[in-house]
Write a structure and sequence with these properties.
124 residues, 6 helices, globular
Length: 124
């Protein structure tokens, strides 16, 4: 079965620009559903730069200290054990970059699965 991982996401990101753009919109939508406005009008060409740009936005929001952060993580459906493991293996200064990468990966998966479901409906 196909799986999007940290190691192959940059490759998919660069080859699937429409999905990349939709992933950013998905992040905005998930945050908005929890009452947090975030604008991700950033160039999507380079995955690593996108992660850094999102991390800067999260830092500006002081995301981990927002009262709505647990609700946002739930809305996005972040894997809690994956998040804890990633945080344990990193430096505190990397917190927002790790969050950005995990949130971006999860939203990219949501967009990918949505596309798969639409394709399956068209085939029937």
């Amino acid at each position: 079965m196909f799986e999007i991982t940290e190691s192959n996401l940059p490759q998919f990101w660069n080859s699937e620009q429409d999905m990349a753009r939709e992933s950013l919109r998905q992040i905005e939508k998930d945050f908005a559903l929890q009452g947090v406005d975030i604008s991700l009008d950033i160039p999507i060409k380079n995955y690593e730069l996108v992660v850094r740009e999102i991390a800067e936005k999260f830092d500006g929001l002081d995301l981990v200290h927002l009262a709505r952060f647990p609700a946002i993580a739930y809305q996005i459906d972040l894997n809690e054990s994956e998040l804890k493991l990633a945080m344990a293996r990193s430096e505190p200064s990397e917190t927002y970059e790790i969050l950005a990468a995990l949130i971006l990966k999860r939203c990219f998966k949501k967009v990918w699965w949505r596309g798969q479901m639409k394709s399956n409906r068209k085939e029937k």
